[in-house]
Fold Centromere protein M.
Amino acid sequence: HLTTSLPLPSERDHLRPRIDMIVFMIDIKSKYSLKNVEASLAHVDASFFLGKVCFLVTGVGRVNYCSVEMNAIWKLGEVYCSPVLFCELELEGIRVATAQRLLRMLQICAGHIPGVSALSFGTLMRSSAAD
């Protein structure tokens, strides 16, 4: 399910499926994109930041057209203890690999991978990013 911002409308709460993972997409070419994500973060329950949130940065192949400071994106990952993934949507191989990675993360967050929790996966992602 996709939404452009949070909070979600309450009139359909009874129809909404369980939310296992939230992927915040940031278009590196749009300051509005980052501002929208920052505004939406206030509407996410703190328990989701324990391995069930990630930031997906798109447009990374166009460094010359960046409107968003990379430090601001890295800071979001640090402040919210969530992984930051980078993707160039125009390149099929990268797009497919990123989709597979997100799907695997979702399987973990939804509890479909025995022996791996969203919290332990989030910790593993952060420790591998630091290396």
